[in-house]
C-alpha cells in the first residue's frame, strides 16, 4: 500500500514536470527547425536556383531533358519492351534452376517499397495543392519519360555490380560510374562516384528519412491531436534502430509483407471513391488538362503547374536519381538488361498509377477551393498555394480528401503512411549505408556510425516543420540526379550495346521462355 | 531401369517414405532412387534490400544445411542397403518441384510421406501432399 502511494506520488510529480516541459518541448521543435533551415538553405538555393531570367528551376529541366534524351536514344524502350517486362516479372524467362535466388519480381518489389510511399500520398498533395490539378498532367508525362531513365540506370546497376566471394552483392551508381568510366577509358569516374555517394548519404538522410518522419508525425498528430514532433521522432528512431542496428529483421519483414497490401488497399479505395464519383471524373480530367496549360489561377500559372508536377514525379519515382539501381542490382540474372526492362515498370506503377489516383481523389473531393465566378482556384493568404477547405496541405490534404469518401479512411491512411514511411526509411538506410561504405570502407564500427547518424536524423525530421524538410529532401535527392545523369550520358552507349544484342537474340529465338 | 523419386521433408514422415522406397527398390531389383528435398520458396515473396543482397549466400547455406542434415544421411542409409541413389536439394513450390523433377527424370513413381500437419493453412490451401496428388503427372504413393 505504502509503496503504491509512493509510486503514485512519483508518477504525479513526473506528470507535473512533464506538463512544465511541454512548453519547452514546443520551443525545442522550433529551435530544431530554425537551425535546420539556416544550415541547409544555401544548398537548397543552389539546387533550385532558376534558369537566368525565369523562375524555372534548372534542376527540373535537367531531369526532364535527361528522361527525354533516354526515351529517344533508346527509341521508346518503355513502350517497345513493356510486354517483355511483364513476362520477365512473371518469371517466364527465369531458369527454374535459379529458384531460391532473387527473382525479378522480388527486386522490383523491394525497389518499389523504397519509392512507393509518402511521395505518392503527401508529395502529390503538395504538387496539386501548389500547382493545381494541371500538375497531374506534367507528373504523368514525367513518369512516362522517367521510365527510360530508370531503365538506363538499373541496367548499369546490374552490369557493374560487385559480387563478393561470400556470395553477397553490392551495386549502384557509385560502382557503375567508377567501373564504367574505367571501361570506356574516361577520366573522372572516381570523383563523380564519390560525389554521388556523398549526395546519396544526404538523400538518405533527407528524402529517405526526415521527410518520412516528418509526414508520419503530421499524420499521427492529425488523428490524436497536436503534440511535439520529437516524441514521434524518438519512437520511430527506436524502431529503426532495432531493425538496422539490432538486426531485428522480423520487424522489417512484417512491414515488407504489410506494405504491398497497404499499397493495394490504397489504390482500391481510391478506385472505389472514383467509381462512386464517376460523374465527376470527366470534369476532373478536364481540370487536369485545362490546368496543365493555363494553370487555372495557381501561383506561377502553367509554369507553376509544370514545375510542381515534374518535381513531385521525380521525387516520387526517383527516376534518374540512381537510388533504385542499388536495390535492383541484387537480382539473379545473366542479362543485366532484363532488370532494366523490369525497372521501367517502377515509375509506371509509382507515378502513372498511384500518384494519379491520389491526384484524382483530391481534385474530385472539392478540397481545393474554386472561385465560382471565374472557375479559377482561390489562393491562400500568402498566395503560395491553393486555399483548401480546412487549410490542409501535404498528407493532411490527401487524408481529408479520402475522408470525404470514407470517414474512417484517415485511420487506415495513417497506418499506411506510418508503414510506408518506415519501409522507405529501411530501404534508404540501406542505400545510404552502401554509399557510406563506398566512401569509408566496410567494417562494423564504420557502419554503426552511419546507422546512428541515420537514427538521429529521424528525430530531427519529425521535429522540424514541413517547409525546410521538404526543401532539403528534394535538394539532396536532386543533387544525386545531377551526378548520376551526368554519368549516364557517358555510359548510355554501353546500355545501347546491351539492348541491341539482347533484342536481336530475343528475336532470333536464342533467348527463350523456360518451361515451368 | 526403373526410377523412383522420394520426397523427404526432414521429418519422420519423410523417413517412412524413404524406408518404403528402399523396400520397393529391392523388390524391383534394377532400380534407382532419386532422393529430393525441396526448400519452400516463392519468387513472389517480399524481402528487404539487405536480404536481397545476401540472398545468394543464404541460398548456398540453406542447400548445404539440408544436404548435411537430411540428404546425406538418407543417401548413406541407401548406400548401406545396397540401393543405387542420387540426391538433390532444390528451392521452389514443393509439390510443383517434385512433379517437375519426376517428369524430367522419367520417374515411374513418386513416394512421399503423409504429413501430419493439420494447421489452418492446410485447411485452406491443402497440404503439400494433397497438392502433389492432385497435380502429379506420374503415380504417387503416399506412405502413412
UniProtKB/TrEMBL annotation, chain A:
- Where is this protein primarily located? membrane
Q: Which InterPro entries match?
A: Na/Ala_symport (IPR001463)
Instruction: Give the way it sits in the membrane.
Output: Multi-pass membrane protein
Give the GO molecular function terms: amino acid:sodium symporter activity
Transmembrane helix is among the record's keywords: yes
| Gene3D superfamilies according to UniProt | Amino acid/polyamine transporter I
Cite the entry's keywords alphabetically.
Answer: Cell inner membrane, Cell membrane, Membrane, Signal, Symport, Transmembrane, Transmembrane helix, Transport
Supply the Pfam families for this chain. Na_Ala_symp (PF01235)
Q: Which domain of life is it from?
A: Bacteria
User: GO cellular-component terms in the record?
Assistant: plasma membrane
TM ranges are 56-76, 184-207, 227-246, 258-278, 284-307, 348-370, 408-428, 448-470, 476-495
Q: Where in the cell is it found?
A: Cell inner membrane; Cell membrane
The signal peptide stretch is 1-22
Can you tell me which family this protein belongs to?
Belongs to the alanine or glycine:cation symporter (AGCS) (TC 2.A.25) family.
Q: What is this protein called?
A: Alanine:cation symporter family protein
Species, as recorded: Aliishimia ponticola
From TrEMBL, chain B:
Q: Which InterPro entries match?
A: Rossmann-like_a/b/a_fold (IPR014729), Universal_stress_UspA (IPR006015), UspA (IPR006016)
Q: Which domain of life is it from?
A: Bacteria
Domain UspA intervals = 2-143
Q: Gene3D superfamilies, per this entry?
A: HUPs (3.40.50.620)
Q: Which family does it belong to?
A: Belongs to the universal stress protein A family.
Sorted alphabetically, which PANTHER family does this protein's record hold?
A: STRESS RESPONSE PROTEIN NHAX (PTHR46268), UNIVERSAL STRESS PROTEIN UP12 (PTHR46268:SF6)
What name has this protein been given in UniProt? Universal stress protein
Q: Which organism is it from?
A: Aliishimia ponticola
Amino acid at each position: 500500500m505504502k509503496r503504491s502511494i509512493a509510486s503514485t506520488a512519483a508518477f504525479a510529480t513526473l506528470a507535473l514536470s512533464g506538463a512544465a516541459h511541454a512548453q519547452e518541448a514546443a520551443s525545442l521543435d522550433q529551435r530544431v527547425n530554425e537551425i535546420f533551415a539556416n544550415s541547409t538553405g544555401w544548398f537548397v538555393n543552389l539546387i533550385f536556383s532558376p534558369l537566368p531570367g525565369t523562375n524555372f528551376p534548372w534542376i527540373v529541366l535537367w531531369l526532364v531533358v535527361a528522361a527525354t534524351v533516354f526515351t529517344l536514344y533508346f527509341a521508346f524502350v518503355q513502350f517497345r519492351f513493356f510486354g517483355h517486362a511483364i513476362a520477365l516479372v512473371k518469371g517466364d524467362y527465369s531458369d527454374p534452376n535459379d529458384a531460391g535466388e532473387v527473382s525479378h519480381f522480388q527486386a522490383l518489389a523491394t525497389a518499389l517499397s523504397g519509392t512507393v510511399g509518402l511521395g505518392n500520398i503527401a508529395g502529390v498533395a503538395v504538387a496539386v495543392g501548389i500547382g493545381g490539378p494541371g500538375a497531374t498532367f506534367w507528373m504523368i508525362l514525367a513518369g512516362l519519360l522517367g521510365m527510360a531513365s530508370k531503365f538506363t540506370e538499373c541496367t548499369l546497376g546490374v552490369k557493374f555490380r560487385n559480387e563478393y566471394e561470400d556470395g553477397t552483392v553490392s551495386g549502384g551508381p557509385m560502382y557503375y560510374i567508377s567501373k564504367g568510366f574505367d571501361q570506356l577509358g574516361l577520366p573522372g569516374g572516381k570523383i563523380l562516384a564519390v560525389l554521388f555517394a556523398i549526395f546519396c548519404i544526404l538523400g538518405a538522410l533527407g528524402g529517405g528519412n526526415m521527410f518520412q518522419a516528418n509526414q508520419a508525425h503530421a499524420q499521427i498528430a492529425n488523428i490524436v491531436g497536436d503534440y511535439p514532433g520529437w516524441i514521434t521522432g524518438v519512437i520511430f528512431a527506436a524502431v529503426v534502430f532495432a531493425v538496422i542496428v539490432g538486426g531485428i529483421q522480423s520487424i522489417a519483414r512484417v512491414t515488407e509483407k504489410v506494405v504491398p497490401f497497404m499499397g493495394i488497399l490504397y489504390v482500391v479505395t481510391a478506385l472505389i471513391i472514383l467509381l462512386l464519383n464517376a460523374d465527376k471524373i470527366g470534369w476532373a480530367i478536364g481540370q487536369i488538362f485545362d490546368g496543365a496549360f493555363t494553370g487555372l489561377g495557381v501561383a506561377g500559372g502553367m509554369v507553376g503547374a509544370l514545375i510542381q508536377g515534374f518535381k513531385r514525379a521525380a521525387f516520387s519515382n526517383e527516376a534518374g536519381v540512381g537510388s533504385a539501381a542499388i536495390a535492383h542490382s541484387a537480382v539473379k540474372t545473366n542479362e543485366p538488361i532484363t532488370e532494366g526492362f523490369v525497372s521501367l515498370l517502377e515509375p509506371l506503377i509509382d507515378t502513372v498509377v498511384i500518384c494519379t489516383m491520389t491526384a484524382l481523389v483530391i481534385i474530385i473531393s472539392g478540397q481545393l477551393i474554386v472561385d465560382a465566378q471565374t472557375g479559377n482556384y482561390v489562393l491562400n493568404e500568402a498566395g503560395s498555394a491553393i486555399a483548401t477547405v480546412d487549410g490542409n496541405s501535404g498528407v493532411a490534404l490527401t487524408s481529408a480528401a479520402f475522408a470525404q469518401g470514407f470517414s474512417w479512411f484517415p485511420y487506415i491512411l495513417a497506418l499506411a503512411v506510418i508503414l510506408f514511411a518506415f519501409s522507405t526509411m529501411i530501404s534508404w538506410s540501406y542505400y545510404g549505408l552502401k554509399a557510406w561504405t563506398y566512401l569509408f570502407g566496410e567494417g562494423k564500427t564504420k557502419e554503426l556510425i552511419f546507422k546512428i547518424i541515420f537514427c538521429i536524423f529521424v528525430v530531427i525530421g519529425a521535429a522540424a516543420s514541413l517547409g525546410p524538410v521538404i526543401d532539403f529532401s528534394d535538394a539532396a535527392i536532386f543533387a544525386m540526379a545531377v551526378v548520376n545523369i551526368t554519368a549516364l550520358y557517358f555510359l548510355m552507349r554501353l546500355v545501347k550495346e546491351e539492348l541491341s544484342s539482347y533484342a536481336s537474340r530475343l528475336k532470333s529465338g536464342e533467348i527463350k521462355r523456360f518451361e515451368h | 531401369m526403373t526410377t523412383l523419386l522420394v520426397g523427404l521433408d526432414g521429418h519422420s514422415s519423410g523417413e517412412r517414405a524413404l524406408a518404403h522406397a528402399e523396400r520397393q527398390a529391392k523388390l524391383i531389383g534394377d532400380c534407382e532412387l532419386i532422393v529430393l528435398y525441396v526448400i519452400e520458396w516463392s519468387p513472389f515473396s517480399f524481402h528487404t534490400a539487405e536480404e536481397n543482397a545476401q540472398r545468394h549466400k543464404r541460398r548456398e547455406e540453406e542447400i548445404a544445411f539440408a544436404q548435411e542434415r537430411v540428404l546425406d544421411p538418407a543417401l548413406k542409409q541407401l548406400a548401406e542397403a545396397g540401393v543405387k541413389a542420387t540426391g538433390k536439394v532444390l528451392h521452389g513450390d514443393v509439390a510443383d518441384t517434385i512433379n517437375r523433377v519426376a517428369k524430367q527424370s522419367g520417374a515411374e513413381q513418386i513416394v512421399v510421406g503423409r504429413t501430419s500437419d493439420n494447421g489452418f493453412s492446410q485447411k485452406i490451401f491443402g497440404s503439400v501432399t494433397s497438392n502433389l496428388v492432385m497435380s502429379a503427372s506420374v503415380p504417387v504413393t503416399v506412405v502413412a
